[in-house]
Amino acid sequence: MIEDPKTAVAMHRWMVLSRVLDEACCQESAHWFPSRGEEAVPVGTFYGLRPDDVCAPGYRGSPIVFVMRGVRLEQVWAGALGKRTSFGRGRHFSFTAPIELRVLPYIAGDLGPIISQATGTAFAQKYRKSDAVTAVSFGDGTSNRGDFHEAVNLGGAWRLPIVYVIQNNHWAISMPIERATAAKRLADRAAGYGIPGVAVDGNDVLAVHAAVQEAVRRARAGHGPTLIEAETFRMRGHIAADTASYRSAAQVEEWQGRDPIRRLEERLLAAGVLSAEEAQAVWAEAAQEVGEAKAAAQRHPDILPTDLGLDEIFSTPLGGA
Amino acid sequence: MPARRMTFVEALVEGIREEMRRDPNVFVLGQDIGPFGGSLRSTLGLWEEFGPARIFDTPISESAAAGLCIGAALEGLRPILDISFGEFLPSAMPQLVLHAPVVHWLTLGKARVPLTIRTKVGEGPYGGHPQCFEAWFTHVPGLKVVMPSTPADAKGLMKSAIRDDDPVLFFEHMYLYHGVRDVVPDGEHLVPIGRADVKRPGKDVTVAATAWMVHRALQAAHQFAAEGVEVEVLDLRTLAPLDVAGLLASVRRTGRLVVAHEAWKIGGLGAEVAATVAEQGFGYLKAPVVRVGAPHAPVPAHPTIRRAFLPDAQDVTDAVRAVLKYSA
């Protein structure tokens, strides 16, 4: 039984597009951060938010969130291929989207600061007395940083309209979560901040979406943050070139059987929401869209040495005000 | 313009108060800045006027507070972050050096971080938290760094910092806080960021100084005047971007340069000032550049060794005598 077939079908389409895009980008770049197997978390978390809500997706799997917010696939490719038309014009890897779409950029290469920054957009939403909210996702590894503790504590103390989502994929590069913390459930950390903590099956997009939407309702109503732990698994290495030889094949195989896209497809087929042909067509369309977008982006102009932008570091010139 | 006499910290608070009245997007957050009135009275009176809607006491979480400010700025607000003491800046380093300064450049100018971070450094009435870390931040592209020495500049630079669309680090010297009282123009008094100021003109030696060392340089200049030596005191005021033109113009007039700051000499701002003059004004120099700064030791607690550690007016005097030995 699927409560909201329209949403389920839409999220299925986004997850398939995410998978196809991600595999293609991994082929293009050895340094791409693969998101295979984790699609349900970004899609379930950020699907259905309002244009005035702020999205701060974790870097792994974030491109699909950009596309869900209105970025064209061709623009994602421009970033992946290092074209002049990319949002950062070569100043940044492609994990950034236009700020006007209310997607927070991954500003630097360290992990954690974005949790405080998202807490800041939630602060601004409350300061302005709007009922907009912020959703931020990040990995289990990042949840061991002091940034996580300070930000979630502050968000709780000030009852800010924010949803914190831990995309627990079990691995921080080569460090398994079991060795990184004695905590059994990362959602339990919420108790330390006096906010609700919810553990959810991160490979069930409908469950992720339901949990996040419930937290969004609480936030909009002024009841403050929720911490959600969505348990999933990083099916590939940290980057495309990482063979992940540091972990057991048995663990990977076990999670192979819980693939979030296949699980949703099976449910959609069983419920008669989608036919096998329709499901197949979604994959075919995604492959065609991704291929066409890449071909188009390949024709975009290349970065120029002058794009260093030495005169664009400050918004106001020397002598200011 | 009508003016009143006030202390350095009163001038800072007046600048903040006027900008908060002018723009509802300006707010202040930090530790103990509400009913407590700020450490060393850094926010005295703001809570009474603006209350909890604009003044936010934070838990001891400098990093989260700095990150929160960046997020709020991306949503169009203009935060003033009060980091009680410069010694707490390292706790917020990722936000301050990796994140806030690059947003404008990274987003091709579409996003801005109009954030003012104010913090207290240097020797003060209680001797606590004295370390001067301002030079670190001048190394980072995208940050503006200011450090005034007078109440008038304190107010004028604070107003400019709050109106500036880039992140500005505002270093407030603790000795000056209640120790200096002077005339401050009322109302719309803006001191531009990026301009040094000649606090005393002279033709024989330039002493380029910051914060309390400006006052020590003025003290030394006064003594030299009795000997017929004219010392020009150049208050750098903005450390980044450095006022290279103002600096070179002064050295061109005097031909001799002493750089004085309370921070450690090694790797300090004085090194950058000296190198800049060596590169771009070598022809003006009649003598080597001499730097005055603290020895390369941790800052000691007890007043006796603290005095031995801190650069003082005598150090400036000695440095001026050293460069005067060279004739044209």
Short description:
The complex is a heterodimer of chains A (321) and B (328). With 321 residues, chain A is of the alpha/beta class.
Any overview of this molecule?
The complex is a heterodimer of chains A (321) and B (328). In chain A, 42% of the residues lie in helices and 10% in strands. Chain A contains eleven helices and seven strands. Chain A has a single domain (5-312), classed as Rossmann fold (3-Layer(aba) Sandwich), CATH 3.40.50. In chain A, strands 1-2-3-7-6 form a five-stranded parallel β-sheet, with helices on both faces. A two-stranded antiparallel sheet of chain A has the order 4-5. The longest helix of chain A is centred in the N-terminal third of the chain and has 24 residues, at 5-28. By secondary structure, chain A is α/β, with parallel strands linked by helices. Chain B has 328 residues and is an alpha/beta fold. Chain B has 13 helices and 14 strands. A seven-stranded mixed β-sheet of chain B has the order 3-2-4-5-7-6-12, sandwiched between helices. In chain B, strands 9-11-10-13-14 form a five-stranded mixed β-sheet, with helices on both faces. A two-stranded antiparallel ribbon of chain B has the order 1-8. In chain B, helix 9 (211-226) links the parallel strand 10 and strand 11 (231-235). The longest helix of chain B has 16 residues, at 211-226. The interface between A and B is large, with 51 and 50 residues.
Give short descriptive properties of this protein.
heterodimer, A: 321 residues, alpha/beta, Rossmann fold, 5-stranded parallel beta sheet, two-stranded antiparallel sheet, 11 helices, 7 strands, 42% helix, B: 328 residues, 2 domains, 7-stranded mixed beta sheet, 5-stranded mixed beta sheet, 13 helices, 38% helix, 22% strand, globular
Mean pLDDT rating of chain B: 97
- Largest interface in this structure: A-B, 51 and 50 residues
Which fold name is given in CATH as the topology of chain A? Rossmann fold
**What is the overall number of helices of chain B?**
13
The secondary-structure element order of chain B is EHEHEHEHHEHEHEHEEEHEEHEHEHH
* Total domain count of chain B: 2
Shape of chain A: globular
The sequence of SSEs of chain A as H and E is HHEHHHEHEEEHEHEHHH
Supply the CATH superfamily name of chain A. Thiamin diphosphate (ThDP)-binding fold, Pyr/PP domains
- Largest sheet descriptor of chain B: 7 strands, mixed
Strand line-up of the largest beta sheet of chain B: 3-2-4-5-7-6-12
Distance between the ends of chain A? 61 Å
Query: In terms of structural class, how would the helical and strand content of chain B be classed?
Result: alpha/beta
Q: What CATH first level of chain A would be assigned?
A: Alpha Beta
Strand content of chain A: 5-15%
Report the count of strand segments of chain A.
Answer: 7
Please state the overall shape of chain B, judged from the principal axes of the Cα atoms. Answer: globular
Number of domains in the coordinates of chain A?
1
Number of helical segments with 4 or more residues of chain A: 11
